[in-house]
Structure formats: structure tokens, C-alpha cells
Amino acid sequence: MPTTNHPAHRMFACAAVAALAATAYGAGVTQPAVAPNAQTTIAVDLMVMHGDPDEASDYWAQQNFQDCGLMAVATVVGLTTGTAPTEEEIVAVASSIPSPGGDGPIYTPPDPNNPNSDNGTTSDEQIALLKHYGIAATATDDTLAPQVGLPTGIPALINYLDDGRRLIVGVHAADDQGVVVSGVDPEAGIVYLSDSGTEDGDGEQVPMDVFEAAWLPGGHDLIVTS
Predict the structure, then answer these.
(1) What is the number of domains present in the chain?
(2) Which of 85, 106, 191, 213 pairs as cysteine with 125 (C-beta 3.0–4.6 A)?
């Protein structure tokens, strides 16, 4: 499935992120713990926890289809409104809303005889779905950051978490996976994810350098709620 670094077009095929650590360390990844990218010059407090992974746990659920983007949106809806749609509910909603990027709905459920026949979702589609639930959000990445006025990179994540904003990022595992960033602990060097792609994805803890190595290939794809 073709992908680009532009969040409007990047499709999340929804592979689990659980293998990131083994993949990255096997490749000898070493990166600074909180290294800002070209668009990010933000001072952060390195001694405190940013965000609340326990709060995100209240709205986590494991996906049954290739619908990581929908499940990330469901978690953000829960964090924002206090009530998260179930997978069945958000699939029904996404199947009824036209995609902003083309013909057909945001999401086409899989054929019962082929559980891998459903489609992934783009950042624009996830934003349209958030809008359905009354939540405004904007996509950014390394290229778009100057245009939309929203920096990306780990220091930016910390700043947004401190402001109470909700975050969906696209990270690269076997394919691309949309996950919610629920917390960052710079002192411990840990990024906390709400990842629907694995049974251990509730409060998944990923070393910061591993997270950065998985996030970088997509240009630090990020959806930020207003």
C-alpha cells in the first residue's frame, strides 16, 4: 500500500507496535532521548511525567480488524467526552460518513470471508471522524508544521500533553499503525501509548529512542485536538 509523508494521504494499515523495540534495537538504533526536530524548539521539564496513561486506559480496547485509526479516534473521543464508542459503534459511524479524500465511506468493513479486506484510514479521515463527535483536530508533520503552526517531535508532544490536548501519531512497525500518545516520561525515557493493535497495548511503554525511530519515517505524523 503506497504511503507518503503527508498526513492527508498517509494510510495506516494497522500493524501492531509491540515489535518496535526488538526491531529498533536489532537495527542498532541510538538516538537522543528528547531531540527536537527541525520545526521544534520547545523547552520541556525533563523531571516530571507528562500526560496521564491511566486516564487513557479507561478508554482502551483491542482492535479486531485493521481499524487502528478508528480505535485511536475512539480513545480520543473517550478522553475528550468521557464516553468512548465501542469498535462496533465507531465502525458503523465510519462506514456511514463519506471519505473527504475520495469515493466511498471513511471505512469499509471486512468481508466476513476475508478479515483482512477492510481498508485503513488517512489522517484526514480520522479528523473527519473526530469532527463527527464534535472534536476539532489538525494534522501536522515535519513538512506541514510551518504552514499549520503546529510543531511536531517529542518536545511538541510533551507541550501538547501539558495543555491537555489529545494526540494520535502514525508510527511504522511492519506497516503503519495509528496510536494515541497518552504520556511521556523524559526522565525514564519512556513514551506511553494506547495501542489497539496488541493485547498489551493498554499503557504500552516504548523506549523514547525506539518510538522516535518508528515515528521518524512518516515525517512525525501527528493529529492534535484543539
Answers:
(1) 1
(2) 106
**Looking at the chain, how many residues does it have?**
226
Q: Which three cell numbers stand for residue 15?
A: 500493524
**Does residue 6 sit within a domain?**
no
Within-domain flag for 5: no
**How many angstroms separate the CA atoms of 194 and 178, rounded?**
10
129: helix, strand or coil:
helix
Q: Which amino acid would we find at residue 139?
A: A
Residue 80 belongs to a domain with what CATH number?
3.90.70.10
- The H-or-E segment that residue 137 falls in is strand 137-140
Residue 74 or residue 13, greater confidence: 74
pTM: 0.83
Task: Give one word for 28, left, alpha or beta, with left for phi > 0 and alpha for psi -120 to 50.
Answer: left
pLDDT at 2: 33
Q: Quick one: pLDDT at residue 61?
A: 97
Range of the domain at 171: 11-225
Q: Angle at CA 60, nearest 5°, toward 56 and 63?
A: 150
